[in-house]
Amino acid sequence: MRVLFIGDIVGKPGRNCLQQRLPELKRIHSPDYIIANGENAAGGAGLTGKVFNELRDMGIDVITGGNHIWDQNDIYSIIGHEPGIIRPANYPPGTTPGQGTAVIEASGGKPGLAVLNLIGRVFMRPVDCPFRAADRELKQLKEKVIIVDFHAEATSEKQALGWYLDGRVSAVLGTHSHVQTADQRLLPGKTAYISDVGMAGLYNSILGVDKEGPLKRFLTQMPHKLSISDGKKLLNAVLVELDEDNGKAIAIERIYDII
Ligand code: FE2
After folding, report:
1. 152 Cα: distance to centroid of ligand 1 (angstroms)
2. Beta bridge partners of 174
3. Residue 63 and residue 119: Cα distance in Å, rounded?
4. Domain 2-258: CATH superfamily, name plus number
5. How far is the CA of 109 from the centre of ligand 1 (A)?
6. Distance (Å, rounded) from C-alpha 103 to C-alpha 153?
7. For the chain, where are the alpha helices, taking DSSP H only?
8. Are 181 and 171 in contact (CB under 8 A)?
9. Domain residues of the chain, as ranges?
């Protein structure tokens, strides 16, 4: 079984590069499922119903979130209503709507899978413990194949969660930094791991947005509007190969395409 996981989709260039390249990636790798982090897919911040439908139409089965998932009001009409969109499980109790886990049942000979979304709390807003939230969520899951999107800033926290869940889940894949790391590996318990998958977005940019805005912010410490224009694009993803009978990972491969 193969799962293609795409890093944070940033705005229109991110969606456009998927429109362009996803059919070819599907042809080459024949993934059973495609997962993507979509918290910045609409205009670089948040997700709308229209963009959600666009991503689903491309064949993305599960869209994960993070700290920007609540940025657009439109999210409230989809999250918690549509299957295939989740947000981190470790928001405090009472955070509604939405769930931290998506389950796709096995059907027609195709194995099922579960996707668990967690968010870090180092250099980020304080949320509940992602480690304990993982324990709690995993107790509920019967699926053999479990893919974790850990949306976090610090590589130390990401590595810690990788080791904490080694042998208990199929993959711990980091998102949020928008920069792909080259540390993909199988942990001893056959959990695939990468600190950050990277992004799908504008190549000549700062984390997917036009470089002028962030540069002005750094130079003056004043607020400046962020924009996203068109140009060369970067598509970052990982392909995880798994044994669907026991959920163990067999291989993890990085995809880094400049389009
Ligand atoms: Fe994020």
Report:
1. 7
2. 150
3. 14
4. Metallo-dependent phosphatases (3.60.21.10)
5. 35
6. 26
7. 11-29, 49-57, 75-78, 130-140, 155-165, 212-220
8. no
9. 2-258
Please tell me the predicted confidence (pLDDT) of residue 80: 86
What is the rounded (10 degree) CA torsion for 66, 72, 76, 77? -120
Report how far ligand 1's centroid is from the alpha carbon of 66 (Å): 5
CA–CA gap between residue 94 and residue 43 (Å, rounded): 28
Q: Is the pLDDT of residue 211 over 90?
A: yes
Rg of the chain over all Cα atoms, to the nearest angstrom: 17
What is the average pLDDT across 183-192? 98
Residue 68 designated active-site: yes
Whole-angstrom distance, CA of residue 83 vs CA of residue 8: 19
Q: Separation of 91 CA from ligand 1 center, angstroms?
A: 14
The mean pLDDT value of the chain amounts to 96
State how far the Cα of 197 lies from the Cα of 5, in Å rounded to an integer.
8
Q: Which of 29, 68, 81, 224 is catalytic?
A: 68
**Alpha-carbon dihedral of residues 135, 139, 144, 146, nearest 10 degrees?**
-40
Q: Strand locations in 120-232, DSSP E? A: 146-151, 171-175, 185-186, 192-194, 199-202
